[in-house]
C-alpha cells in the first residue's frame, strides 16, 4: 500500500536507503522447486552496478547479494526469499552540503512536505540504489520465466539525439552487453558514447530511450480491464527513477495513422492480453537531474542558492537502467503467469 | 486480482458486458458525509455517451445511472456505493457475423486463448462500454477532490496530424466541451473535425492524443518507489481501450535535452510525489481497429477471411475518451489523498 | 480495504443496505467454463430467507437473484459476475422509533462515532440481510468446489443448553435441512425447537453453536504463516453477524489435555495447511440482541430510555445462519484452491 | 498473497526459516516521525526468547535485532523498516533423524504435499521461531499505539486444568511478567508452574488459554462487514502456532444465555466496530505436539515408526506466547487506526 511492494502472486517488497546499513527485500510467492544459483543473481546485480565503465559513476558499490531464506539445497522451497545488500563506500560527507538544499529535479522538497523530514544523504529511499533490490527480484523472475522460454532483452535505442534506427528484428541483441552503452549496434554505440563523454566533460547529463523486446510470452497474460498487460508494464517502467514516458508498438507515432494502416502492424498484446507475438515497448528517461555544473535552486528556508553537486554521478543512466527495465518486465510477466493459472476451470 | 478493481482505499470494482443485461460497479471507500447529486453523476455519464454529435456512433445508449446503496439522505454514508446502468438498444444481431471471426486489432482471439471461449457480442467485457462504470466512479472521485480544490481537465490535443500547438497555460479549458471534438481551440477543433469526417466517409478511423491538466493537487501524493504518482497515472491511462502511450512533462521529447536544460522545466511530480505544481500528462490513442472498410483477417479455424464490419462505430474515440481520462485521473488522486492521511504521525 | 471484499483470487465484493433499493455484489475471479444454473443459486438463497418456518421472522423477503454479467450461454466466462437482489416489503416505518435510540448490543452508536451519521433503518449495512449476497457468492464457490468433490455441511449443534452430543461421524447430515432448526438428529431438533419457541413467546432470544464439516478438501490449502487455513476460516466465520467464537478440532477443550493425548486426535489441518482429512470447526452465536421485551438503553443524547422493539425478529438466528456458514467456508476453500495452483513450479 | 504479509496500511512481511542464516521482515506503512529506541524492540524480543526460565527451552537464541532501514536520527522516516535476526546455536544435527519422519501434529507431511519437498530442519518456516519477526513488528505497533494511549496486556489465564477465575478487572496486570508462567495472580501462577514442571518431567506437554485485555482502543476501528474487528483479531490470533480457538466477551459460554441476559454484558466491539470500552478476548493453545515421550508416527514412505524427539522443546508455550499475542493484537489495531483516518470527509 505504501508502495514498497510490487506484484500480487509473485511479489517483491523492498526496503533500504542509499546510506543506511543495507538495502534488500523479500520475494514472496516464488514457486517451489526452482533451481537457483547465486552466481546468476550476482551477475544480474553486477550489470546494474556503478563503476562498470568510464561512462558510469566510479563509486565502488560492491553489491554482494546475501540470500537469507527461502532456498534449501539449491532450490526455492516455496517460502519467502529474504535478501540484503550491505551498503559500503558511503562517503555521506559528500552529501552534507545538501542537508538544507533542495536539489533541482529531485524529490528533496516533497519528502519534507510528505513526511515532515527526510534522510538527506544521497536521496535516501529515492536513490536509484533501491533498484538493486529490484534486479535481485527480477533475477528470480527470469529464472522462473526461463521455464517457459520467455526471453526479455532490453537495449539503449537512443541517447539524446543519437537514435538507433534499425528495427529490433534486424539486430543481434546478444551484443547489447558488449558495448559500454548497451546498444547492440556498434556504430551507433560509438556515437552514443561520444555524446555521453561530452556531456560528462561539460558537467552535464543526457537522457534517452530504452527499448525492450519480450519473446515467447505465453498467450493469455494480462487482464481485460484495469490490469491490461501494457498498463501494468507502464506502471512497472515508470516506477523506475528518471522515467518520463512509456509507449508500446507504434506508440505516439501510431496516432498519425489511419486505422486501416495501423491494423496491419503486428502487436504482441490485444485488448490488454498477450497473444504470443513479440511484445515491444519503449521507455523514455530524462537526462538525470544531478549535474556538476552550478545550478540555481532553493533551500529549505525558501531562499535562492547556487548548488554545485560534489559526489560522483552518472552523466547518463541508460546503460545501467537496461537490467532494471528487464527486471521489472520479468516481475510483471512472472506475476501474470502465476495469476493466469486461475483463469480456467480446466 | 483479476483486474476488475482499481484503487486501494478509494476502490472501484466494475462488472458487465456490452450485450448482457447491465454494466455497473461498486465504489468502496468513498468517505462518509459527501453531498451527492445524481444529476452530476448523470452529467458525467452523458459526456461519455455515444450519439452526442455527428462525430460519434449514433447508438442510443441511454445510460441511465441507477444508484443502489451507500447514499442516505443525499450524502455518502461510508458504505459501498453499488450502481448499475442497464444495457438497451443491443441489436446483438449486428455481431452474429463475428461469432467465428477474429476482428483485426481486437481481443477476440486472445479471449479464446485465455478463457477457452468468449462472449462474441460486441466485444463483451472488452467493449469500451465498460468505461461508463469508470465514469461513474470518477464522478464520485471528482466530488471528493472538489473538497480539496483539485481540478482535472482533459482535452483533445491532436487528431491524426492535426496538432494543437498552443500550451495549456494559454488555453481556456472551459471551452473544451463546447466543441464536438473536445478541443478548446476553435480553429484547431474545426480542422480536427474535418479529419474525422473524412475518415468516417472513407470507412476508416483516426487516432490522436489527449492532454490532461491537473491543478491544485496537494503536495505529497504518490509513493517513492513502486507507486510513483506518474506510474499509477500511466497504469490508469493505459487501462483505457485503444491507448498506446503515456508521457508526462516533456516526455519522449525531454530525452533529447541536456540535464541543465531539462532541470529548468517545471514539473508537478518530483521523485514520484506531487509537489503542488500543475501535473500535465499526455495519452496516445491509436486509430480504433473497427472500420467499415473490408479487411483481411482470420476466423477461429485459422482460415483467412474478409471482414466487413456492420454495426455503428466511432471513426475517432478521442472526444468521448476525454471524460474517461478525467475519471481515471480522479480515481488515482482520490485514492492517494486517502492513503496520504496515513503518512505521518502528526 | 474498507472491508466489503472477501478473498484474493476468488473474490466477493458486496454492497447494499437493508432498506435501500437493493443489495448485491460482484464475484470476481470465478474461473471460466463453470456450468451455472440460476436454480441452484436461488435454492441457496432460499435456505437463508426469512419466513421459512414458524421459527423465523415472517418477513417475506422474496430475495430473487438477478444475474447481470459474467455468464454466457450457461457458463461462467471468466469475467466478473454482477448480481443483485431487490429489497421489498421494507416497512421502514417500523424503524422510525429507532432513529434516535441506540439499540442494546447493536452497532447503532459506533456508526455515529465512525462515520458521523448512519442509516438508521433496520441496521442499514450492519443488517444480517447483507449476508444474502454472501450466500450468492458461496453458491458459485460450491459449484466450483464440486469439481473437486469438496463437500461442506453445517448444522446446528447446540441451542442454548440443548447440545447435540452425537459426533458428526455418526450423523446423517443429509437430514439437516429436514428439520426447522437445521439439526440432523430428530430428537435433539425437537428439544431445540421447544427452547426457541419458549424464548419467542417470552419476547426473548437464544443463541447456540453451528458445527461445520468439510470433506475431501485437497491437501495443501492454506499458507504456513499469517494465512493459516483455520485463521482465514475464523476470519470468515467471525465476520458473520452475532458470532462470538470459533474453534477447530478439540478447540478450548483441547487445552486441558496432555500433548501425548492430543496428538492422537485426527485433525484436517496441520500447521495451517489442509492435509486431506475432514476439517471440522464450530462457531458460537450469541442470542440476538433484538428482543421484544422492553429494555433499558440510551438515545443519541446520552439519555436513558426504554426500548420496545417492534418489527419482526428471529428469536434464534442459527437455523438461517447454517447456509451462511457454508457459504463463507466455500469462499475460503475456493480462494485457496486457486491460490495453491501457484505453489509449485511443476 | 502467499501469506507472509499481515495488514494493509501498517503492513508486516516476514521471512526466514529456523535453521537458515537469519529470520527477519519488512514493516511498511509505519508513519513518519515516531521516536524509536532499539532497547524497546529488543526488550519485546527478549520476552519471547527461549531460555528465560526453567519452564522454557534452554536454547540460547540470542535474538539480537538488527535494524537496516527506515529510521533516521532516531525517528521513523516513513520508509519501510527492514530488520533481521541472525540464527545462532542451530545444532541442526538434532533434526537429522526427522528428515524422513513426519512428526505427529506437525506440518511435515503437508509441506511435502504442498511444495513437493521441505526444509526438515526444526520445522523450517513453520517453526515458532518465525514469530520473533512478528514481535519486532508488534513492538513498532505498540510505539504507535502509545500515541493514542491504547494498551494491550495479555496473560496466561489457564494451563491445563488450572484456571485463573479472577476477572481481569480485579487483577494487577503489571504483575504478569513477574511470574515465569506470565499469570498475574501469584497463587494460580504457582499451581500452573507445578503442572508444567510435571509435564516436562513426564516428557509430555500442556496447553492453556491466554486472555488479552485491550484498553482505550479508539471508537470506530473495524469495518462493518468482512473485516469486523474481532474477525481480524481472530485471524491474527489463529495465525499463531498451536492455536485452536478464539472467543471474545462471553464467547462459547454466551451461547447458553438469553438475549435479555447477554445484552447486559458490556462489550468493547459492537457490530464489528470498537466502541471505546475494553476489548477482551481469549485464545486457546493446544499442548504442543513435540514431546520427548516415544510416539507412533509414519515416515515419508508411509511406514509406521516410533519417534523419540531429541532437541530442546518447551513443555508449555503459553508463557512465551504472551508477547506474540500482544504483538499480533497491536498490529491489528495499528492497521485499523490508519485505515480509519479515511472513513470520513471531515
Cα end-to-end separation of chain A: 33 Å
- Beta-strand portion of chain A reads 15-25%
User: Do you know the CATH topology of chain A?
Assistant: Chorismate synthase, AroC fold
pLDDT averaged residue by residue of chain A: 91
For the record, the CATH architecture of chain A stands as: 4-Layer Sandwich
Largest inter-chain interface?
A: A-B, 97 and 96 residues
Question: How would you describe this protein?
Answer:
The structure is a homotetramer of 346-residue chains. In chain A, the strands form five sheets. In chain A, strands 1-2-3-7-4 form a five-stranded antiparallel beta sheet, covered by helices on one side. The first copy, chain A, is globular, with a radius of gyration of 20 Å. The first copy, chain A, has a single domain, classed as Chorismate synthase, AroC fold. Chain A has 346 residues and is α+β, with helices and mostly antiparallel strands. At the A-B interface, β1, α2, α5, β12 and α6 of A face β1, α2, α5, β12 and α6 of B. β12 of chain A pairs antiparallel with β12 of chain B, so a sheet runs across the interface.
Compact overview of the structure:
The structure is a homotetramer of 346-residue chains. Chain A has helices at 38-48, 108-115, 131-146, 186-201, 229-238, 259-262, 318-340; strands at 5-6, 11-15, 22-28, 66-67, 71-72, 75-76, 81-86, 101-102, 151-159, 162-163, 208-215, 243-248, 269-270, 273-274, 279-285, 295-299, 304-307.
